[in-house]
Design a protein that fits this description.
The chain is an all-beta fold. It has strands spanning 3-7, 10-12, 18-25, 33-39, 46-51, 59-60, 68-73, 78-83, 92-99, 106-108, 112-116. The strands form two sheets. Strands 2, 4, 5, 6, 9, 10 and 11 form a seven-stranded mixed β-sheet that branches. Strands 1-3-8-7 form a four-stranded antiparallel β-sheet, with no helix packed on it. The model has no long low-confidence stretch (mean pLDDT 96).
């Protein structure tokens, strides 16, 4: 059974940090490109960051460059999103996504809520 389980979300003050984790099971994690998306109320889901199967340098949305870092540990089947200098506009449900190299298969997690507020 394929699962992507996000954790690490919560309430944080502006300027604070959070580290999201996404634990994968049921598929060959090390072959998949992994990414983080987010969706704020009333807005479309948007790509935040992506990382290749080998864990090379990530790609980031302009709105999070220099503040967020995506990484992965293929031995632990886990992808991370380190979020620093958080802003209220970062408030959203954050989802992880896995895409097979052929792009024929895509998996989504259930999401974790991040709220940035004083």
């Amino acid at each position: 059974q394929v699962q992507l389980v996000e954790s690490g979300g919560g309430l944080v003050q502006p300027g604070g940090s959070l580290r999201l984790s996404c634990a994968a099971s049921g598929f060959n994690f090390g072959r998949y490109t992994m990414s983080w998306y987010r969706q704020a109320p009333g807005k479309e889901r948007e790509l935040v960051a992506a990382i290749t199967s080998s864990g090379g340098s990530g790609n980031y949305a302009d709105s999070v460059k220099g503040r967020f870092t995506i990484s992965r540990d293929n031995a632990k089947n886990t992808v991370y999103l380190q979020m620093n200098s958080l802003k209220p506009e970062d408030t959203a449900v954050y989802y992880c996504k896995g895409v097979h190299p052929t792009m024929a298969v895509t998996y989504w997690g259930q999401g974790t809520q991040v709220t940035v507020s004083s």
